[in-house]
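Re: [help] complex structure
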Amino acid sequence: MTIAKLGYTLLGLFIVWNWGFLMGAIFRKIGARVSGRIGIPFYQPWINFFKSVGVRTTITHGVMYYLGPVFRLTGGIGLLFFMPLIYTGDPNGMWTNFSFEGDLILILYFQLFGMLGMAMGAGEGGHPYSAMGIARGLAQHAAVELPLTLAILSIAIQYDTFSMYKIVEAQQGGFQNWVLFTNPFAAGAIILAMLGAMGHSPFNLVKAPNEILIGPATEYEGTYLGFMQSAGSILHVMEAVLFMNLVFGGATSWPELIVKTFLIYFWSVFVGMVFPRYKIEQSITWFFKVPLVLGVLAIIVFSF
Amino acid sequence: MISPIHILTIGLGGAFALGFVPKKAKDAAAVLMLAAIALMGVLTGSWLIGLINGESAQQIFTAGFKPPFSINLLMGLNESVLTTAVNFIGLLGGIYLYRNLKEAGNHAVMVFLIFIMGLNVVIMTRDIFNLFVFLEIVSIATAGLVILTESGKSIQAGFKYMLATGIISGVLLLGIIFAYYYSGTLNIDGLTAANIGALKGGSVALLLIMVSIILELKSFPANGWGLDIYEGSNAGIGAMLSAATATAMYFVLSKLLEMAGSEWNYWVALIGAVSFVGSNVLALKQRIAKRLLGYSSIGQIGLLMIILGFKDVLGDNTPYVAFGILFSHYFAKAGLFWLAGIVKQNDIANWAVIRKKPYFLFLMGTFIFALIGFPPFPSFFAKWELVMELVNTGNLPWVVAILFGSMMEAVYLFRWFGYAIKGENENIEDFKIEWNKILPVGIVAIALYVTGYFTSQHTDAGAAINWIPLFFVAAIFILDFLPVFIKNTIAIIGMAFYFYTIYPDLDNLRLVFEAIFMIGGILTLIAGYAYKGTRPGFYPVALLMYAGLTTIIEAQNTLQFFFGWELMTAGSYFLIIRGKRSMPHGLSYMLFSVGGAYALLMGLGMAFAGQGSYDMSIINSISYIPYWAYGLLIVGFLTKTAALGLHIWLPGAHGEAESDVSPMVSAILLKAGVFGIVLTLIGMGGENNAYPWLPYALGWLGAITAFSGNLMAVFQEDAKRLLAYSSIGQLGYIVLGFAMMSHLGWLGGFSYVVNHFLYKAVLFLTIGAVVLRVKTHNMYEMGGLIKRMPLAFTAVMIGIIALSGVPPLSGFAGKWLFYNAILEKGWYLQGAIMFFSGGIAFMYLWRLIHTIFLGQLKDNHRNVKEISIWFLIPIYTLLAGIMVYSVKPQWVLQPLGDIVAQWFPDGQLTWDGGTAFTKYGHWAGTAVAVTIIAAFLVVTALLMISTRKAHKVKQFDITYSGERPERPETTHVAYNVFEGLYQAMWVATIPLVEKWWNKVSDFLHDTAGIVRRIYSGNGQSYVIHIVLFIIVTYFVIIGG
Amino acid sequence: MEYITITTGFLIILAGLWAIMTRKNLIRIIIGFSLFDTGIHIVMVSMAFVKGGVAPILDKKELLTDTAHKIVDPVPQALVLTAIVIGLGVTALMLAYAMRLHQEKKSLDIESFKDLKW
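Output below.
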């Protein structure tokens, strides 16, 4: 690991962080327009962030409360570290970040790092909404996991590797090589599971955003909230990058990454605009229907 | 050498002399009787010693005539053993009944003496008419003794006894006269020489003789009178009937069976098997202690009849097997009957009173374990030999019958014992101690251990058993009065020293498991320092379990292995049942363990079959129905790993156990099952084994177990049960890993074995210690404890991150290996179920930490202290282990990989520094950990700088539902938090397995409840049973 | 002729058994036992009978040669004596029992003594 590599990685982090904010703003704007409002200016997330980290008074409920956002942000950053962002033809290239330290499985499990830490941190605040939100979030996550795991296994069987880099490499040379076309069942399962992973409506009972946030983050304010906003923005982009790498051929340049993540993200927002929120038991059963069937088909197709 | 005829002299002379003892000199009469019995014992004992030292057997003819004109007796080795046994138990029984006999007067004393003398002659006689006469003497004496302590019940029982024995002896007499008519002799040897069964009409004579002796042994189902007499008579007499009479009658049967010829072997074995199974099944519904013992006695005699029937198969081993079972029964049943007389409780539930005097509980336990056939008692070795030989000769249905009957016996005996250990005893009046009653009980208990030891030395395999751990347990038992601190220190030093001495002799595979057992054992024992007082009974049983565990590891032959397995089962049973409300769980643990052990026994028997060796290596080359053999071994081991279907004992057993016991039985004990599975799979031949369906089924079973265990854990409200279900799930992963039969699968399995040991010990120790502080298992009654016990919180946090498999902690190693293994093996669906289970695990893990440590602190916990330092020491030692494993996974995985490579050389990990490669992917454990920790620290630093002036708020400084809450109970979201998941997945939580086992249990109990109504209590119906029994056997054996 | 005794013996045995198995009164049952025993005793002696044999007392010279065919077998007769004595003892003890049972429940019906069952 060279210093340059660290530099590129941090630069990537910075880009992703900003892109996440911008993308978030765009979609709040879309949401507002769909419901006939003007909506926020595109720079609102930055305002929110700087306002949050700039407040002079904050509270703390204790050490774990404190560590919640740390876990969350570390989770986001780490995910970026272990994910190859842009395919350059060199497995140790400049935008592959630290993905030499682990493969797809590391990414899959590291996703949970922030989630678990956040779940613990929010708990110390003692607010009932936090606990309810986390309980729902974990249950829904488990349900998402099943089709997702099947699909990922299917892709791994297809390319005989768990290396994210190799999966992206194999999809180069035209959209016809994308998993979306070479393994449509797995792609289908992932595209549907993605909706749950992104946590937009109809799968957003976890945060249950209304006028205010009702969910794990209820008790957080100030820099804590700022960190969580940052983590949210990074995680959103990185989730999209994960699915881009898995299904949509990865990206060979930043613009491609921007476009693809935007579209992936748009998909979940689009669905969210159209469908109302599910209750948690409804969303769990939803993942056990079509996505699960697709996932099993994806396995069956590739195991023979 | 004094002629055995003088037994008669002593008996009759004594009886006559008693007539001259004045009526008021009651003590003199009783002492005279004891002296007479002792004298008979000395006489027979001197014969025993003489015959062992090579003197020749003596045949005695009375009045100088040859048979049939004289009575002739034989004093051979068997006779000397059995008469000595009868006189020994007679002497002890006389001492036990001393006061009763004394009160009843000289006549009763006389009858008792004649009873013992009669049994002596019954054993020695070689003349069937003489046999009849002395049987009648014994019968009449018995009928007299039954009413020694007179009650309405004893008189009724005695009358029914007379009705039944009257008919039986009439039939015997008819048989004898026919036999004489057709053969012209009454001498057993003469009849044998004449081959009575082959003579015209002789077969009927033989049938009548044999059937009447079989009936005298109270064969099922014509045995209602026998049960009544066991229940109705004085417990001291019951002991005599069960130990002395049954022993003598059994020998009579064996004598006559030689006369009857080998075609009778089958029938004797069949009737014995019917008796053994029938009697033990019917006993299931029985709740009256003495009657229960009666059922058990009849069952044991049935088992002995099977052995007798298979004497040609067992060959030279017959006496070894028969005496092993016989003497266990003889000592244990006498002991239990005597205890019944001391405790004086009819209902087995009221036997809870026995633990008001703990040493009596120990005695009772000794007898019950001896009856079931646990080590180190003679019955263990005898049953082993019996099953091995029967399987070796292909008599599998018989083995199944024997094991099924034994299983039923275990059910009711352990239920009874469970009441004694754990039942309510506050409102039951304590029992009185009389020294003359305790002495015999103590002597037979010691005798069981001594005979057990000597029985083991009889065979080469048994002689190889290492008794040192067991002696250590015995020493700790003797020191049980010492305070915890001293005993704990002794135990820890003992285990450490033992581990130090044996570890150089172990191969690496065994070393891994031995290290988990011994180091884990020492660490969990350290937590024991937190307990005050003497903690009676804890150390012997804990060490018994560890003794068993180390014996399994060290075992050079299958007998040793099974010996250790059973010791471990016994020890863990006692450990588990120490917990509160643990009675039903202790029972189900024991029953599954016994069932599993029987599966093992059969499997090991099949391994023995055809190879003729007990060496452990026979598992590697089973040739006799190997599919079944390996399958049975695996099923046996799966009972200990609590695979789905065999798991229902675990949640309660682990959940209700004491705080430092739960980690012992969860983190450590379960690995014994894993060790067994590993051995079996190695034995099957590793990668290219010839039994592909077994690992395949095992793989699915593991995956489904992982899923169910984890899902059930999510819905628990009890913290320890949650962890218990979690263990089921984790063991499911392990089973799946090993079932894959590939390098990566096994490495993943081993990784989980080590990891599960580490984090489950941490979690169970911490939660257990928390429970000790807050005095409840229910998570929703806790909350916010992070403020009171930050160290405990940290431990649980690290524990759950490790368990969840989130990088960078050690759990990820297992996940990563499993993904690679699954891909390589192609078990995608099983793998998907397993990874889905991992997702579910998150829910219970979060629940564990949130509901206990986060959220709202309860008012009654505001002053609880941090968990005990004695728990923190082992917990943080284990955490250090987790940390090392996390940061330097190669230190653990490389040696494990070398072990696995012995059997699975293909597909190993390749290591480049700290980075592991498979053909699919890579993982740099150290680098990942460093990266994450660095990012974590940077972010923490940023946040700390930014929030350095944060205002610390108090517990209720939040707003909820438009108000500031003030009651933690209404604010702490803790109860049934996964309602949504339940609504989506309730189908998967239906306890089908439990329902199935309940159905099985109900079926057996209902059957017993219906069938036992044939014992209507009416003496006439018992006579009808006997007559029908004779008719049926006539038609079956002779034919229409 | 020689079969009459043995047949009678068996018939008495059956009669005794019938009484034991069907009569409800304890005394009758005990009488049944006596019949049963007696029947067996008759069977025993009649089986030892040798056609034309005399009592096994060797008081005449001709009996000393080919003894076995001239006298009836003495062994069963000795056995029967023992059996009778034993039967007597058993009957006496049973009657004593019947007395105690009657003292207990003021009844001689065997159906009344079913406190121990199952």
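Residues 3-303 of chain A form one domain.
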